[in-house]
Amino acid sequence: MSDTTEATEPARSPSRRALLGWGGAGLALGAAAAGGTVAVVKGGGSDAVPAAESGAAVPFHGAHQAGIATAVQDRLHFAAFDVTTKDRAALVQLLKDWTAAAAAMAEGKTVGEGAYGGLAEAPPDDTGEALGLKPSRLTLTFGVGPSLFAKDRFGLESKRPEALVDIEQFPGDNLDPARSGGDLCVQACADDPQVAVHAIRNLARIGMGKVAIRWSQLGFGKTSSTTPDAQTPRNMMGFKDGTRNVDGTDTKALDEHVWVGAKDGSDWMTGGSYLVARRIRMHIETWDRTSLQEQEDVFGRDKGEGAPVGKAKERDEPFLKAMKPTAHVRLAHPDSNDGARILRRGYSFTDGTDGLGRLDAGLFFLAYQRDVRKGFLPIQRALARQDALNEYIQHVGSAIFAVPPGVRDKGDWWGRGLFG
Amino acid sequence: MSDTTEATEPARSPSRRALLGWGGAGLALGAAAAGGTVAVVKGGGSDAVPAAESGAAVPFHGAHQAGIATAVQDRLHFAAFDVTTKDRAALVQLLKDWTAAAAAMAEGKTVGEGAYGGLAEAPPDDTGEALGLKPSRLTLTFGVGPSLFAKDRFGLESKRPEALVDIEQFPGDNLDPARSGGDLCVQACADDPQVAVHAIRNLARIGMGKVAIRWSQLGFGKTSSTTPDAQTPRNMMGFKDGTRNVDGTDTKALDEHVWVGAKDGSDWMTGGSYLVARRIRMHIETWDRTSLQEQEDVFGRDKGEGAPVGKAKERDEPFLKAMKPTAHVRLAHPDSNDGARILRRGYSFTDGTDGLGRLDAGLFFLAYQRDVRKGFLPIQRALARQDALNEYIQHVGSAIFAVPPGVRDKGDWWGRGLFG
């Protein structure tokens, strides 16, 4: 599964006429959004970064879904859905409709006939708030949760991958069921938040009567980078986050740690990945009263440069034994976890106040990996047991999703390998 | 009060040495954030728009507070505070400390010695998550709510402006006390949300033990523009919003409708303005099932272009009688309300899901005016009674604040006219 060429090919730029011909999935694709020429960037890689400002499009079709190795966009809207229909055919049709709409929106086009291209007597096909906005590197990444495979639902029990585990309760977890789980998920990332919000809202609308949003999360700022030469973003604790993240252009690392391989078990997941989402509340006010020395000890890096303890530069190789045994970086390091690595794409969130005058803020953690049992689970077990950071954070939401491989072409659709 | 020259002057660019000398308010101003040269833009006006991309600074000092006539930035973090101290001197010192911190942050500098410039044994002066980010046109706008003037608090009863009314309950209001009111407010607008969130969080931190956040609101996308030549943003209903808003460069309109005049009553408010904040939830799912014709009838404009009924172009003069009597644009128009005009600076919000699978999304409405009794109140009375839009929205939070004039220079501070 090292073939990432499809995902990094420039997308076709079909004319509107051609687009209207695509409507086999039940949704015609409408007028291109205003805003001039639509540039296209590579699906991943550091050279995609300057394109953030151009508002370019990321190709939707490819061997892998976009939004995983893709250079991390600035903003996030994430939604987990409950499937409310019991009709398998209706669900399959929805997934086809979603795929067509997602492909259109990724190109900066409207859903269907658009916000004002249809009949006046009918609701517009597209809700319209992204009209005039650029594609803004929108990616839509689709996943399937364990509950979809339950007995007596859609006959998928035998297709549940072993790697799609039920995540255990870790010490310190305080999970809210209303912010956890979900039959399906869609991760919308874009450099313009209105584009990401528009995408989730339109998918929810298309799914009306078949799915309902279980929970959703807005992320206002990225905290991880998959492009190691770009500036590393800081999390809400003021520390650089994701310095040693998996590089989205490192095919070898992706194949080893992120993409599901052909021999990994479930055929329909080959070329896909597993996503763990955790809502991590930060005790901002407590952290802000903590000394600089304690903050740096907790992470194992200095706050300004982001250098590991005893080193000068952010990207210097960490010397783990120089750090406290409870330092976050030490405990999460591959050398402490049998080489476990995960691709992080987390975002900071701020959702107002908690009723006690404290900011309801933190990190919406998103991590992709080839096998959760060799990625998130061992790392989180170590962190939950010992991490000095636990005094300042609490996990309040949790979900896991199997993220299928990419949609290969216009005849393909989200979940075809599972339902087809 | 037509003197806006101070607000549009380029800000001084003092050296770090000079900055450290400012610390009279109890807070030294720290190292400039990384990220290279800090450009400065005019405080308002259409020529400030391209600067959005440069990450430039908006001058903090001026005759009026920045963040009102200033070209609307992309993102918002708004906080309302309860004053928890009973000590007038402590509150005054806080307002001085806040002013110094706000002036520093508007220039892209850290609070105090910064995130790692102080003693290792002490908490850092700045929480650090905006290090390396540009000023991003950050403006911080300060206001005072009616409750601060209450008897037996700070001896301010006689200073309460008549225009700082208690807003009545309108038909259809469903106000949540936990999202309403507040003794103080700070509106943080910036093109980078991390910069806006950082600013509110650091002000809250400085205020620890004296104030507590009562409620706060993140706005992911602007819905109004104060620069009529820029593209008009769309709200979550997909319609262009703020087409005929007060132009932030139109000194005459600002003096007539936005800035408090010398003869308006309360001396300490001369050059200030009154802010009404309303959290307006949209019934997104209902709206999305409504026909295009109905949507356009409700607003009185077409969805695509934004032209008033019967007209071709967005900026064509509306012919009100061509619209339905319940059309939003008709009811809100100055001609329907004795010439009432308000300067809108609202933002779209999406705060997850409401527990019934519906997006908790809508408009965080912010409007500035010279006198609420001649601005928001008559307009909202008309809207609450008749507006066809009421079927699709609900006001769930409300607050009013007196926003004093600008901080003139480094010896001046937020609220000096009130407390001084």
Could you describe the 3D structure shown?
- Two copies of one chain form a homodimer.
- In chain A, the strands form three sheets. In chain A, strands 7, 8, 9, 10, 11 and 12 form a six-stranded antiparallel beta sheet that branches.
- Chain A is of the alpha+beta class.
- The N terminus of chain A is likely disordered.
- In chain A, helix 4 packs antiparallel against helix 5.
- Chain A folds into two domains: 56 residues, no CATH class; 345 residues, no CATH class.
- Chain A is globular, with a radius of gyration of 21 Å.
- The longest helix of chain A has 19 residues.
- In chain A, strand 10 and strand 11 form a beta hairpin.
- In chain A, 20% of the residues lie in helices and 19% in strands.
Secondary structure topology:
Two copies of one chain form a homodimer.
Chain A: H1 5-8, H2 16-20, E1 29-32, H3 51-54, E2 75-83, H4 88-106, E3 109-111, E4 139-144, E5 184-190, H5 193-206, E6 211-219, E7 221-222, H6 251-257, E8 273-282, H7 284-287, H8 292-299, H9 328-332, E9 343-344, E10 347-353, E11 359-369, H10 376-386, E12 393-403, H11 416-419
Antiparallel strand pairs in A: 1-3, 2-5, 2-6, 4-5, 7-10, 8-11, 8-12, 9-11, 10-11
Helix pairs in contact in A: 4-5
